[in-house]
């Protein structure tokens, strides 16, 4: 805080006004720092992102459940599938059915998701139209 004192020979009154120039300088420097350091994300392609929603879907008896365990093994219901080629062959038989059943993928949260990617690739190669993921809702609390 600064106090302006008049020069010699002027009136003896003390001017007790606050000098705001240093305050304005500091604020302008802070504004410039914030403008430079805050990353401004600017996307050039306008897209409408999907909204998060939870849907409870009842599984039908004809739906196929593929599971991935912690070691990356793929299971057709409870039977282990040996290799991606065997999975594709089984999925091709399912893809030929009318109406085509859905594939539900259950992936262990501690597993490497490479196996889930292999399931999706196998579904694509076999011509499966509907693939869904089975998840658990987050704990309430």
TrEMBL record:
Residue ranges of the TM segments: 26-45
Keyword Membrane among UniProt keywords: yes
Keyword annotations: Cell membrane, Membrane, Protein transport, Transmembrane, Transmembrane helix, Transport
GO MF terms, alphabetically ordered: transmembrane transporter activity
Highest taxon of the lineage: Bacteria
Keyword Protein transport carried by entry: yes
Membrane topology field: Single-pass membrane protein; Single-pass type II membrane protein
Example of a GO cellular component annotation carried by this entry: plasma membrane
Family affiliation: Belongs to the ExbD/TolR family.
Protein name: ExbD/TolR family protein
